[in-house]
Amino acid sequence: MLRLKYVLMIVGVTLVGMFCMSFGSMQSHAAQNNVYDLSEWQGKFTDDQVKKLKDEVPFVILRVQFGSAYYDKTFDNNVALMKKYNVPYGVYSFSQYTDPNDAADEAKALYNRAPDAKFYVNDYEQQTVKTGGTNESTLAWINALRPLVGNRKILFYSYQSFMLNHAAEAISAYDGYWLAAYQTNEPQREHVLWQYTDHYYSPALGQYVDSSILTVKNSGWFIGNTTPKSNAKYEKVNGIFTVRSGATDNFYNHVVGDNKYASKLKVNNEVANYKGKTISYNMKATVNNETYYRTYFDGHLLGWINVKALGPHITYSRINMTKQIKAKNYYNFYNHVVDSHFANTHKLVNGSKYAGKRVHITGRAIKDGWHSYYYKCYYEGKFIGWIYQRAF
């Protein structure tokens, strides 16, 4: 991961020898608590390597990406073997974000590529932010990831001087600091994991790797020991919605933010395939001040989706009649029914412009659960928009 270079300005071979002896002793002492962070630089692992690795470390930390654009070449192979041989693993993203929005996208990409990880790490050690601020971007990273991972840990990784210069404010939002410092004595700076070398020999892998040591937290703190409880409230409800044409939230196999299913969360269906379509629901869930519905299309399960992606179902009918606008009218004309699924709904004209005038009506619409209508109006043959019935 990090490649820190320390130059020892020490005069005399004796002191250098003492340093090496101390460092070697520390590595030996750390053998039972070593944690490796691994990437494509270590290559594709074999079944035999990972079987041995299970008895060598409590867990590993795998690189998933270099920014959101670059996907680690060996991750798919290596993570499959970790799962096969029950080696717990966390994941990290080598951050390359340039602003808060980019940081949020990188965090989401990390989750989507590794939804089953035990914990997640923002490896921010290279200054790439151009606008929006480094602390703001680092905070946006965790804020985007937190609703997806539930109670799993989210760590920040870097060396101390970089953290102080670029993330000193944002780091408090993280569950812990993974501190990089290649030295013999454990740093005084508060941390949950200490990366102390990039040259630790792994017998299982047959190569030298980056290694960190567990001294402050035990392995259970990182990877968890129990199945989390649900923090969502569920209730049976029935009805129909129309998927908004501007929706960005996808359908998930579980409720986003429910701790119980955080490690199993994945996209069930892409919302882009159902925009403007009528769907049904039979269950509602609330969690972290958000509302989700379990939805179906033509009897087939779509999954759970945030209510923000859904608009009211509206029944349209054709009519042919005239009505007079009130002399004092406070309702305006819109290109679509207000709060319908159309993304570009906007006001066409102030209703007061047609106060006291008679308009031709060719259609009406009613939202599910409502008892009042919207009307499609024309004046002198020109479409002037949809307006609420109290305008008449």
From TrEMBL:
Gene3D superfamilies: 2.30.30.170, Glycosidases. Residues 233-315 form the GW domain. The keyword Lipid metabolism does not apply. Residues 1-30 form the signal peptide. This is GW domain-containing protein. It comes from Apilactobacillus apinorum. Belongs to the glycosyl hydrolase 25 family. PANTHER family: GLYCOSYL HYDROLASE FAMILY 25, LYSOZYME. It comes from the Bacteria.
